[in-house]
Amino acid sequence: MVGDVTGFVAASFLRGVRLVQVPTTLVAQVDSAIGGKTGVNLPEGKNLVGAFYPASRVVADPESLQSLPAREYRSGIYEVIKYGVIADVELFKFLEGCLEKLAARDPGAVDWVIPRCIAAKAAVVSQDERESGLRVMLNFGHTFGHALEAATRYRRYLHGEAVGWGMIAASRLAVKKGMMAPEDARRIEELTLRVGSLPALTRLDAKRLLAPMRADKKARGGKLRFVLPVRIGKVEVRDVVEAREAREVWKELLRSGE
User: Fold this and answer.
1) 47 part of the active site
2) Catalytic residue among 47, 74, 139, 172
3) Of 74, 142, 172, 225, which residue is the catalytic one?
4) 35: Cβ contacts below 8 Å, ≥ 6 apart
5) Is 142 labeled as catalytic in the residue annotation?
6) Which residues pair with 229 in a beta bridge?
């Protein structure tokens, strides 16, 4: 949040002043501080006001993560898993075998994961800075996740936790649409749930969660648009997903996630 708000202010003040990002959370070091996309939340949806404004420098010191509260640290691990699903099979396999080391903040695991995620995001952003095409893949899990954040007024879920639920939901939707093998979806769900206890999906209903999804910046003409996995290491953008399909996934997830 600090990086997003500061980046937006830096882009706006005097029509742009020099910006240096010094991320001190895992989610920022592997994702949000990289690529120059800044955004401010509104009651109607996530990141609806913002700017593309790359920092002139990003300084990510893994040692700063040692003092991070456990829940905040776990929140970043979900974004790490995202990179394994969208583009890096080796990273995903590493997490399957060494998740507990990363969760324990083992220096070797942390030092291997962070540069790999940074390189993956930099490779995407260098080809599509303003999210006109390829960069959309970085939103895997975020359409469902942003809906959870908005529907609960950004008070129940940390961003990574919402993305964790979102990756599970997107994987289930991909299976329903015949895009992904159930076994791959199961691996994604099991790895995500191994990170820790996600906040429960209580006092929510599928209809309420569809509204912020229609307001999501990735939607087109009121039609839902999702980044869905084809297999571990590859995702695709589906421009038109029926609201009925998303609602069915929400209902299924709400029943299992209480």
Assistant:
1) no
2) 139
3) 142
4) 54, 121, 122, 124, 125, 129, 135, 138
5) yes
6) 235
Q: Does 18 participate in catalysis according to the annotation? A: no
Is-catalytic flag, 135? Answer: yes
Which of 46, 82, 159, 172 does the annotation list as catalytic?
Answer: 159
Please tell me the pTM assigned to this model: 0.92
Taking alpha carbons only, the member of 99, 19, 116, 111 closest to residue 66 is: 111
Tokens of 54: 């790359």
Concerning whether 146 is annotated as a catalytic residue, the answer is yes
Rounded to an integer, what distance in angstroms lies between the CA atom of residue 59 and that of residue 20? 8
Instruction: Give yes or no: 131 in active site.
Output: yes
Please give the class, per CATH, of domain 68-256.
mainly alpha
129, 36 in Cβ contact below 8 A?
A: yes
Active-site residue 236, yes or no? no
pLDDT on residue 258: 55
For the segment 205-219, what is each residue's pLDDT rounded down to a tens digit?
888 898 888 777 666
* 128 pLDDT higher than 70: yes
Q: Tell me the domain boundaries of the chain.
A: 68-256
Which helix (H) or strand (E) segment holds residue 47: the answer is strand 45-52
231 catalytic, yes or no?
A: no
Could you give phi then psi for residue 57, rounded to 5 degrees?
Answer: -155, 145
Residue 94 near residue 104, CB atoms below 8 Å = no
Ramachandran class of 196: left when φ > 0, alpha when ψ lies in -120 to 50, beta otherwise: left
User: Which among 79, 82, 149, 161 is annotated as catalytic?
Assistant: 79
